[in-house]
TrEMBL record:
<keyword id="KW-0653">Protein transport</keyword>
<protein>
    <recommendedName>
        <fullName>Mitochondrial import inner membrane translocase subunit</fullName>
    </recommendedName>
</protein>
<dbReference type="GO" id="GO:0005743">
    <property type="term" value="C:mitochondrial inner membrane"/>
</dbReference>
<comment type="subunit">
    <text>Heterohexamer.</text>
</comment>
<keyword id="KW-0496">Mitochondrion</keyword>
<keyword id="KW-0143">Chaperone</keyword>
<comment type="function">
    <text>Mitochondrial intermembrane chaperone that participates in the import and insertion of some multi-pass transmembrane proteins into the mitochondrial inner membrane. Also required for the transfer of beta-barrel precursors from the TOM complex to the sorting and assembly machinery (SAM complex) of the outer membrane. Acts as a chaperone-like protein that protects the hydrophobic precursors from aggregation and guide them through the mitochondrial intermembrane space.</text>
</comment>
<comment type="similarity">
    <text>Belongs to the small Tim family.</text>
</comment>
<dbReference type="InterPro" id="IPR035427">
    <property type="entry name" value="Tim10-like_dom_sf"/>
</dbReference>
<feature type="domain" description="Tim10-like">
    <location>
        <begin position="16"/>
        <end position="79"/>
    </location>
</feature>
<keyword id="KW-0813">Transport</keyword>
<keyword id="KW-0999">Mitochondrion inner membrane</keyword>
<keyword id="KW-1015">Disulfide bond</keyword>
<dbReference type="InterPro" id="IPR004217">
    <property type="entry name" value="Tim10-like"/>
</dbReference>
<keyword id="KW-0811">Translocation</keyword>
<dbReference type="Pfam" id="PF02953">
    <property type="entry name" value="zf-Tim10_DDP"/>
</dbReference>
<dbReference type="GO" id="GO:0015031">
    <property type="term" value="P:protein transport"/>
</dbReference>
C-alpha cells in the first residue's frame, strides 16, 4: 500500500510513529556519546578490577550530570531561537 492510499488519519499516525522513532534514535545517540565521553575522561587512568572505586564513580556521575545539563541548556536555547523566528 502506498502512502497516497492512506487516509489522512493514517498518514498522521505514520508521521507520528516516524517522529517517535527518530526521537528514540536521538536519545540512544546521546547516551552513546555520554558513555564514550565519560568513560574516556574518567577511566583513562583507572585501575580496572571487579568494582569501580569511589573517585571513578563520582567522576562518571559528575561527567554525566554536566553532559545532561549542557545538552538541556543547548536544547532550550535552540527552542528559544526557533520560537523567535516564528
Amino acid at each position: 500500500m502506498s502512502a497516497s492510499r492512506l487516509s489522512d488519519a493514517d498518514q498522521t499516525r505514520v508521521q507520528q510513529a516516524i517522529q517517535e522513532q527518530q526521537q528514540v534514535a536521538q536519545v540512544q545517540q546521546a547516551i552513546a556519546r555520554l558513555t564514550d565521553r565519560c568513560w574516556d575522561k574518567c577511566m583513562a587512568n583507572a585501575k580496572l578490577g571487579n568494582k569501580l572505586d569511589g573517585s571513578d564513580t563520582a567522576c562518571i556521575a559528575n561527567c554525566a550530570n554536566r553532559f545532561l545539563d549542557t545538552s538541556l541548556l543547548l536544547m532550550k536555547r535552540m527552542v528559544e531561537k526557533q520560537q523567535g523566528q516564528l
